[in-house]
Amino acid sequence: MASNEGDGAPLNGASTGTVTDLTLSADDGGGTIELTSVNVSGGGSLDMDGNSMGHDNDKWGANQNWTFSFDQTISFDELTFAVINEDMILKSTGWLGDTDATGTGWSFNGITGEFTILGSSGSGTRDFTSAGVSDIAAGTDIAFGFFASAGGGEELTSFGITVIPEPSSMLLSLVGAGLLLRRKRS
């Protein structure tokens, strides 16, 4: 799993085109994945003091959102908040048509491809692994933020993803393993 390791550093100065390398865990074979900030839009402040989006008095404004993408196919697993007082939304066209689902502190709408993250649930982790949604292909936009009224006191502290190996890299791994076995036998 890759994450921003408990702080908002990948979002710091997240203007259009900002690219940040995230370190992958050993579970994903190590290495890095690139996160590209596609767009930051809307009113209000997107300052990152305290290393968290929406920290302290830097509240999200109405219709303010951050759009980003990854350079590899991923599944989106979770978001963790220190504080959340208002509903926020995480959405992508990669989820359109998937099955509607709900979990602790969130609901998913497959018609619009978006998670509504319920502010009334307060701080903690929103686990999306049970949502049954599609993986998100490399380069596909994911948007996060307020898409209606302004919020207050929101503080995103981390997010989690799992990198999905491309079929070609899986095939190469299998071929390599077969060659090693063959060499070992002879």
3D architecture notes:
The protein has one domain (2-185). It is elongated. It is built from 1 helix and 12 strands, in the order E-E-E-E-E-E-E-E-E-E-E-E-H. Residues 1-10, 43-52 and 54-58 have low confidence and may be disordered. The N and C termini lie far apart (38 Å). A hairpin with a 2-residue loop joins strand 7 (101-103) and strand 8 (106-109). The longest helix has 19 residues, at 167-185. An 8-stranded antiparallel beta sheet has the order 2-3-4-11-6-9-8-7, with no helix packed on it. The chain has 186 residues and is mainly beta. It has one helix at 167-185, and strands at residues 2-3, 19-23, 32-41, 65-70, 74-83, 88-92, 101-103, 106-109, 114-117, 124-127, 142-145, 155-163.
Can you summarize the main beta sheet? 8 strands, antiparallel
Radius of gyration equals: 18 Å
Q: Please, how many domains?
A: 1
Q: Bin the helical content.
A: 10-25%
Distance between the termini: 38 Å
Order of helices and strands: EEEEEEEEEEEEH
Q: What is the typical, i.e. mean, pLDDT? A: 75
By DSSP (H or I, 4+ residues per run), the number of helices equals: 1
- Content of β-strand: 35-45%
Shape type: elongated
Low-confidence stretches: 1-10, 43-52, 54-58
The main sheet orders its strands as 2-3-4-11-6-9-8-7
Structural class: mainly beta
Number of strands: 12
- Oligomeric description of these chains: single chain
